[in-house]
Amino acid sequence: MKKIAILIEELFDEQELIYPYYRLLEDFEVDLVGAEKDKEYTSKAGFKKKSTVASKDVSADDYAAVYIPGGFSPDYMRRTEATVKLVTDMFNQGKPVAAICHAGWMLASSCDLRGKQVTSTGSIKDDLIHAGADWVNREVVVSDNIISSRGPSDMPALMRELLKMIEG
Questions:
Q1: Catalytic residue numbers?
Q2: Domains in the chain, please, with CATH?
Q3: What is the pTM of this model?
Q4: What is the three-class DSSP state of 87?
């Protein structure tokens, strides 16, 4: 069974974590990858979810894809070297890297965005442009192995594209 990594950190957006988590569990083994293993992380609204593994203990070779939820959590994710390395390695191996809303911060810190088209919440548009991306305002954008969306209302489109890419 293919394994998917979903990143988790403090102040995640619960909608952007929970819907993809349970949808992906229907067909795959899913790890919630945090800076620490078995740590309880708190969402923006106070919802708690525990990581299953630490980013320092896993490798891109372990996963078929990585999904990055938004909220303020991507700003914390990119402060953990092992988490950035996991996403960088997934990107470099050509595996699907899905990012929604503020998760574009992780793309900017982990992936070479030059020549890539991406979307995100509008508030980080400039960050992505400065990282070399061509930012567009669409519900979902697929650029090579990067799949990006703007926010919670775009999740069905993002999940369709991510599932298509995982299944090859």
A1: 102
A2: 3-167 (3.40.50.880)
A3: 0.97
A4: helix
